[in-house]
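Worked example

This section walks through a single chain of length 63. The input is the sequence exactly as stored; nothing has been trimmed or padded.
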Amino acid sequence: MCQQNNNTKSKKGKHLEYSERQSIERWFNRDKRTKVEIAELLDRTEKTVRNEIKRGLVKNFFT
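Given that input, the structure is written out below as tokens.
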């Protein structure tokens, strides 16, 4: 049997593209969108967006 209609919504197992990372940064920092809103806009899970934001935060201890 062959499945004709693939209606999966999520992009499982795929990495974020550079443009998606830029969008997350812009929407989170400048536009002050929530992580849930960003996830819906990118069609990704909220956990993926949270991990990417957490990964991008850098603490500067020397200032």
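What to look for: The mean pLDDT is 83.
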